[in-house]
Amino acid sequence: MPPSTMKNPICISTGCVYKLSKDRNDLIEKVSYSKNKQVIDQLFYITSSVEKAGMIVGSALILLVILITFNTIKLTIFSMREEITTSRLVGASNWFIRGPFLVQGILYALFSVVIFDIIFVISAFFLSSKLQVLFLDFNLLATLKHIALYLGIGQVGLTVFCGIVSSFLATRKYLKT
After folding, report:
1. For 58-102, how does the pLDDT look when each residue is reduced to its tens digit (9 = 90+)?
2. Which of 26, 65, 176, 177 has a CA positioned 20 to 30 A from the CA of residue 50?
3. How many domains does the chain contain in total?
4. 99-104 long-range contacts, Cβ below 8 Å, gap at least 24?
5. Is residue 160 part of a domain?
6. Residue 21 or residue 52, greater confidence
7. pLDDT attached to residue 7
8. To the nearest 10°, the Cα dihedral for 43, 45, 51, 56?
9. Angle at 147 between CA 121 and CA 55, to 5 degrees
10. pTM for the whole thing?
């Protein structure tokens, strides 16, 4: 129900609740799906387009994270190539050589999550009041408090996965026998 047709708004922290008047018939003028079909279809199209664009941008960012971590670890491997060669000559296993680079990829992932979350929370804190007005009393900070654990686990899991994949790809060349 659009806010323009509702009477007597009472806003609370979780959203806007509207008091119903004694005569509820004046709240709804006319319900017509066929009259609003074009608007509803357009809204569904916009929603699906935004969802697809989000998936494409998210996939591109994941690829970018893997490439940046890959190049960083590759530079480290390049600077340590003599030590890797010496380790191979004395009989070190592939896991013994690969281990420090896997840890390095995991640490890059964890530090990136911490730095991003600090910047995001500070931005959310300052922008929350402006977003609350823009999105009809949507409280970003309250929402973040409710999903913080799941969001954190998802971020850490995905970035650690990207770091491990990057490390495996970067060390593959130097571990061929």
Report:
1. 899 888 888 888 888 888 888 888 888 888 889 888 888 888 888
2. 65
3. 1
4. 101/73, 101/76, 101/77, 101/167, 101/170, 101/171, 102/163, 102/164, 102/167, 102/168, 104/73, 104/76, 104/167
5. yes
6. 52
7. 46
8. -150
9. 85
10. 0.63
Q: How confident is the model at residue 174 (pLDDT cuts 50, 70, 90)?
A: confident
Q: Are 20 and 27 in contact (CB under 8 A)?
A: yes
Does 19 reside within a domain? no
43 occurs within a structural domain: no
Of 65, 144, 58, 146, nearest to 111 (Cα)?
Answer: 65
Residue 153 exposure: Cα atoms within 13 Å on the Cβ side: 3
Residue 152, pLDDT > 60, answer yes
First to last CA, the chain: 68
Residue-range definition of the domain harbouring residue 159: 55-175
CA 21 and chain centroid, separation: 42
